[in-house]
Each structure stands twice: as C-alpha cells, then as structure tokens.
Amino acid sequence: MLSQLFIKNVAVIESASIDFENGFNVFTGETGAGKSILIDSINAVLGGRTSRDLVRTGEGKAVVSAVFTDISKEAEKLLEELGYDIEDELMISREISTEGKSVCKVNMRPATAGVLKQLSSVLIDVHGQHDSAVLQNPELHIGYIDSFGNTESELLEYRESYKKLKSVEREIKKIINDDSDKTARIDMLKFQIGEIEAAAIEEGEEEELLALSKRIKSAENIMELISETISALDGNGENEGALEGLSSAIENCARLAEFFPQYEGLSEKFKEMYYEFEEFANDVKDNADELDFDPALQNRTERRLDQIFRLKRKYGGSVEEMFKYYNKAVLELENIEFSEERLEKLKKEREQLFSETAKLAGMLTKKRSEAAEAFEKAVSEELSYLNMPNVRFKVNFEETDFTESGKDNLEFYIATNAGEPLKPLTKIASGGELSRIMLSIKNVLADKDNVDTLIFDEVDTGISGSAAQKVGQKLKQVSKGRQIICVTHLAQVAAFADNHLLISKSTEGGKTFTSVESLEKEGRVNELARIMGGNLTDALKKSAEELLELSK
Fold it and tell me: Which residue(s) pair with 68 in the sheet?
C-alpha cells in the first residue's frame, strides 16, 4: 500500500509529507486548495506525463516521492524482472526541472518514466472524472467485459489466427494487383538472372585474376628478380653461385675431417643445405618458365576483370552481394511464375484460416456473453445499492466483421427509470449517474486485479443526499480489502474515512502555500460542518457529529 507521499515545490505546495493508512483515506478542502495537485503529483511519480509548469514559481525543480509497504507478490515479481532488489519498502521518486528534464529513481537507483509506469500497474489504480468520459466511449466498453470475463487466453488465440488470416489476405491481394506488371517484371528478372549466369563467375575468381593482373603488369621486374636469384644460386660467368660454394665447402670439410675431429659430420650438413638450395633453385626456374606472359593473356584477364566490375556495380557492389541479388531474383521469378499456383494455395489457406478464426471468434463471443450476463447482474446490484433501484443495465451485442478484438460490437445500454426503454448509456446518463455507474463497474472489477491501492478523484461528482451516503458506504466497504484514497467534496463520503486529510491554502509574503494535515475528531467535525454549510454554527457541528456517529 501507499504509506507516504512527499511533495516539494509542486505548484502551490512548497513542501508536504503525507502519511496514509490502510483502509479508507479521504482528502477534503476548499476549491482551489490543491486537491487536484495531489492527484497530479501521484500521477507524476507513477510515470505519467509531466510539464515544467508543475514546478513551483521561483524554484528550479519539483520533487515527488512515494513509499510503498507490504507490496504484493506481483509487484515483487515485476521489480525482479526489471532488475531491482526486493526490500521491505519500495520508494519511487521523480524530479521535474524547469528545463523540462525528468529524473526517475526506484529505491534510489536510476529508472525511466516507462519503468515507473510499469510499476504503477501493480501498485495503484487511479480513477478520476475522466473515467466517466471513458464510459461515454462505446468502443471501450468491450474492454470491461473482457476484464470481467478473463477472456485473455481466448482473445490471444483469436488474435493469432486473425493475424495469420489478414497476412494471407494481404498476400492474395498483392498477387492479384501485381498481374498488371507481371510480364514486364518477368522479362526483367530473366534478363538479370541470365546475365549473371552467363558470366559464370566462380568463388575466388576475382581475387585470382587481380593477382594475375598484378603479376603481368610487373612481369619485367619479376623476371629481373628471378634472374638475380638464379644467378645468386647457380652463379654466372663472372661469379660462382651459392651451390658451387656449398659444393666446395662439402669437399673441403671432408678433407679437414682427416685432421680435425670436430669437422666430422659437417660435410653431411653442408650436403643437406646443398640439396635444399638446389630444390629452391629449381622451383625458381620453374616459376620463370611460367612467367612467359603473352599480350593475349593480359587482354583476357583485363576483359574478365572489367566484366566482373560491371556486374558488381550493377548488382550490389561486390561479388557476394551480386550472388545474393541473383538468389533473390531467382526466388522472385519462381514466385511470379508460380503465382497462379500460389494464389490457389493461398485461397485454400484463407478458407481454412477463416473457418478457424470464425470458430475462435464464436468461442470468444460465447465467453463474453456469459460474462456480460453476470456483469449486468453485478452492476445492477451495485447501482441499486447506490440509490438507483429502478435502473436496468444491459450489455448490447452486435455482430460485426472480424476485427482485432473479435466479431463483437459491445455497448452499455441503460434505463434509469421504470417503464423506460433501454438506450445507449452515452446518450441518457447524467453526470451523477455516470459517477455511480463508473463506481459500480470499478467495484465489480475490483476483484479482477491485484492492485492494493485505489485512488478515486471526486468520484461523487453530481450526486448528493442519500446517494452520496451510499457512495461513502460503498467506498468504506471496498476499503476492507484494500487501501482506498479518495478526493471528495461531500461530507457524506468524508464521514466514512479512517484517515481524514485536510488540504488548506494560505498566503504569506505574497506567496501561496498549501498544507496537508490529518484531522482528529474535533477537526473532522469542523471540516464536515464547513463542507455541509460553510459557516461553523452549532447546529452544523451537531449535524457533523451525528454524521460521524452514523458512519461508524
């Protein structure tokens, strides 16, 4: 649950530390005191969108932090998945600067607004006046039934099939649309494939040709180097070569061995060297024979390299990319040439997928229908409790073409008075009725989520009297199983609070300040009396005391 909220330099709030209790927490205060700022602050620390305008005038930054205790297993699991340690307390904080920058932290470690938003989904659920606007959007009604009916697995399976069906339909449409320019594309692909195949370029051929071209262009220099190498080994008319010198060394060492023992075996070592040098000399002579280049070979090499260069430039920049283009073109040509066969195959696949999707959509509709029936009954009971006893609430089903959500178009219908026909909720419900309908729906859905803290921002808008008292009783009832935080302007709701927090505004030195304090009994009586009538008369205080007693 939310244990503490700290706010600094947010709008008119210079600094406030608010302690919350388990059960039913209520905020009251005069209009403009800063109740909406509290909700804005909570939304900010939960990763909602912020603005530099949130920063108090004259300050460089605003800070909001929230401390949670006794967090749920779902929250612990998500923290672990996000890479944060599990501790006794969870603290989330956010700084907003006048430059528009935002710094987020989870347990003092850096985070992003996206991470805060993920965590908020398992920590707090905020319901405000905008929820009534949601009720007035029929397209969103199906989400309530899916949530109530736990249709997640059926919806996921349906969407997988629907996705495949749409993919096949797109491919069929593409094949049909491509018929107009099919002939020209086939001619182009055949030409390109034929051009690459005719070249018959082999792997590694370009590298070999480049090396050969380099040797041809350097033939004169190469021959000179080889000639000098052979002369160094075999000698010439003027100088003896290394082989002749080694031969003399072999003979001399054999003779020296007769006089000096250390020369024993040296002659054999020189013989080994002689044979190695002789073999190397023969290799060099063989290379010299191979380097008998003729102009025709040079012309063939350069023409081949030029052909490879042109094809590379045309089909990707390298031989490897050219082969990739070739393979892709062959595949495309096959697909086009066999498109009629492919089209027939796709049509059969579409029929199969259509049947499967229709079956899954029907199963989804069936589960939604069953959920809708139970949902109607539960919401009607809640509305009856909230002083709308004659209301009739209905989930209207209309079949549509396949959509991502199935083949159901759902809309809430309602008749608020006996004898009236059912009509779309969006057309007939008043503001007060919408508030009670929304509260009823939230109460019905409350058991479907594992969020420990629910925040209601002026959920009692547009109601009064006994209806307001029933709303207070309902919120008190819901708070038995989880923490409720409610911003209200009705004494009948505030009287049920376990923890009554007063937001007040004052002016000092030309600046506006907002403070938050937890009220004891006397303070609560005074605040309830103020809400009920404005001036604190003895009669109003007595009425407030009676209201508190009745709310226990």
Answer: 2, 90
Tell me the per-residue pLDDT of 253-305, one tens digit each, with 9 for 90 and over: 777 777 777 777 777 787 788 888 777 777 766 766 656 566 677 788 888 88
Amino acid residing at 153: S
Provide φ and ψ at 423, rounded to 5°: -135, 160
Per CATH, domain 1-128+458-519 is 3.40.640.10: no
**CB-based contact 47:116 (threshold 8 Å):** yes
What pLDDT sits at residue 237? 61
| CA 52 from centre of chain | 26
Q: Is 407 helix (H, G, I), strand (E, B) or coil?
A: strand
Q: What is the pLDDT of residue 456?
A: 83
Domain with CATH 3.40.50.300 in the chain: 1-128+458-519
Helical pair 339-385 and 152-177, crossing angle rounded to 10 deg: 150
Matching residue, tokens 């199983």 = 481
How many Å apart are CA 179 and CA 193, to the nearest integer? Answer: 21
| Radius of gyration of the chain measured on its C-alpha atoms | 44
pLDDT at 244 over 80: no
Q: Is the pTM of this model over 0.70?
A: no
